[in-house]
Write a structure and sequence with these properties.
- The complex is a heterodimer of chains A (249) and B (117).
- With 249 residues, chain A is of the alpha/beta class.
- In chain A, 41% of the residues lie in helices and 24% in strands.
- Chain A is built from nine helices and ten strands.
- In chain A, a hairpin with a 2-residue loop joins strand 4 and strand 5.
- Chain B is mainly alpha-helical and 117 residues long.
- Chain B has one domain.
- Chain B is built from five helices and no strands.
- In chain B, helix 1 runs antiparallel to helix 2 and helix 1 crosses helix 5.
- The longest helix of chain B has 31 residues.
- The mean pLDDT of chain B is 93.
- The chains are: A alpha/beta (249), B mainly alpha (117).
- Chains A and B meet through helix 2 and helix 3 of A and helix 4 of B.
C-alpha cells in the first residue's frame, strides 16, 4: 500500500460454524487504481468482499472507508458515500427491465452519459428486456453498466470477468480502466490471470485465510511462492513462450 | 440531500406501496376464506364468523399488517431487488416502513367503511 487507500478492510476474520474461512484477511482499494485479489476457489475472496460491505458480519476486523472506521459496516451507509458492490451474480432485479433499473441508478448518481456507457458495453439494445432474458455474458455487462452509471468513488467487484467471452473482456477491462482514470478506487476478484494481470495496478494474494500484498503485477509475477502455488504452469509456460519468441526475433 | 438520508427512488417506492395494497387485499380475502371454512367445518356459527370476518380482532388485524410487510419484503428478496437499492444508499427501513404504513392505512380505511355500512 503506498497512498492511503479509500477503502480498506483490515484483519477480517470469518468462520461458518467450525470452518474458518478468513483468519486475518485484508484488502484495499486506492483512488485511481485497480487492485486485484487472486486466490484459489473457496479461499474466501467473496466472503472478504461481502464482509467488507456488511452483507456478512465479520467475526473480527474493521473496515475503513473515506476516513471513517466501521466495525459493523452497512452497505446502504457506505453506498450513500459512493461505494458500489458488484456481486458475482444477481445484482439486477428479475422483475424489472434494465431500462427501469438504470433510471433508478441515474436518479441517484445524476449521470448524464448513460447512453455512452451502455453503448460502450454493448447493452444499449437491451433496455426493454429483463435480466433473465439475457445470456450470462450480456447480464454481466449489464451489471457492470449499472455500476458505471452509478459513478462510484469505490467499486468492489466480485469476479466481473466471469462468463464473458474473450472479445468482451477487452471491453470490460477498458471500462475498469476508464473508471479508474476518473478516480474510482477499484477492487476486483477473479481467476482470469492474463487479463487481470494486464489490468491491475496492484495484486493481493489470498491464501489460507489470510492475504499478502504482492505489489505491482510485475512484482507479483516474480514472487516464487505465488507463481508456484497459484499461477502454476500456465503462467510459467506463457512466460517461456514469450521469451522464446523474443529470442527468435 | 437525497443521498444523506438515503431516500428511495420514488417510482420504486410507489411500486412497493402498490404491492403492499394488493398483498393486504389478498391476505384479507384469505382471512375471510378461512372464516368461511370455519363455518363449513362448524367451528363457528355463521353469524359469529361473519362478525369476525367484517370486524376482525385487533390481533388478527396486526398480524395481517405485519404479514403484508413480510411478504412484500420476501417478494422483493426473491426477485433480487434488495441489493440494487442498498447499492443506491437506500436504507431498508424505507420499504419496511412504507409497507407497514400502507397496510395499516388500508386496514383502517377498510374497517371504517365496514363500520359505516
Amino acid at each position: 500500500m503506498c497512498a492511503e487507500p479509500l477503502c480498506a478492510a483490515d484483519s477480517i476474520g470469518k468462520s461458518f460454524g467450525p470452518k474458518t474461512i478468513l483468519k486475518n484477511a485484508s484488502a484495499w482499494a486506492s483512488e485511481g487504481k485497480i487492485t486485484v485479489v487472486f486466490g484459489r476457489n473457496g479461499c474466501g475472496k467473496t466472503t472478504l468482499l461481502k464482509a467488507s460491505v456488511g452483507l456478512l458480519r465479520a467475526d473480527h476486523g474493521v473496515v475503513h472507508y473515506a476516513g471513517q472506521a466501521h466495525l459493523r459496516p452497512q452497505l446502504p451507509e457506505l453506498a450513500s458515500r459512493g461505494l458500489f458492490y458488484l456481486p458475482d451474480r444477481d445484482l439486477l432485479s428479475t422483475r424489472m427491465t434494465l431500462g427501469e433499473q438504470y433510471r433508478a441508478v441515474e436518479w441517484r448518481s445524476g449521470a448524464t452519459d448513460t447512453t455512452r456507457i451502455l453503448e460502450r458495453l454493448s447493452v444499449d439494445g437491451f433496455l426493454d428486456r429483463k435480466p433473465f432474458e439475457l445470456s450470462g455474458g450480456e447480464r454481466r455487462r449489464a451489471e457492470l453498466a449499472t455500476a458505471w452509471i452509478r459513478a462510484p468513488r469505490c467499486l468492489l467487484a466480485d469476479e466481473p470477468f466471469h462468463g464473458i467471452d474473450p472479445r468482451d473482456t477487452d471491453v470490460v477491462a477498458e471500462a475498469f480502466r476508464d473508471m479508474a482514470q476518473d478516480g474510482c478506487a477499484i477492487l476486483i476478484t477473479g481467476h482470469e490471470i492474463r487479463r487481470l494481470m494486464d489490468t491491475a495496478d496492484e495484486i493481493i494474494w489470498m491464501v489460507a485465510g489470510t492475504t499478502h500484498g504482492l505489489g505491482t503485477p510485475e512484482q507479483a509475477s516474480r514472487h516464487d511462492q505465488f507463481r508456484r502455488e497459484y499461477l502454476g504452469s500456465i503462467y510459467l509456460d506463457d512466460r517461456n513462450e514469450t521469451q522464446t519468441r523474443s529470442n527468435h526475433a | 440531500m437525497p443521498v444523506s438520508i438515503g431516500l428511495p427512488y420514488p417510482p420504486y417506492l410507489r411500486k412497493v406501496i402498490r404491492r403492499s395494497v394488493v398483498m393486504w387485499l389478498l391476505l384479507r380475502c384469505a382471512y375471510v376464506a378461512v372464516m368461511m371454512g370455519a363455518v363449513m367445518a362448524e367451528v363457528f356459527a355463521p353469524a359469529e364468523a361473519a362478525a369476525a370476518a367484517t370486524h376482525p380482532p385487533v390481533s388478527a388485524r396486526v398480524t395481517l399488517v405485519g404479514l403484508t410487510a413480510f411478504l412484500v419484503w420476501f417478494g422483493r428478496m426473491r426477485s433480487r431487488e434488495l441489493l440494487l437499492h442498498a447499492n443506491l444508499g437506500t436504507r431498508p427501513g424505507w420499504f419496511w416502513g412504507a409497507s407497514l404504513l400502507t397496510a395499516a392505512l388500508a386496514d383502517t380505511v377498510a374497517q371504517a367503511l365496514l363500520s359505516a355500512f
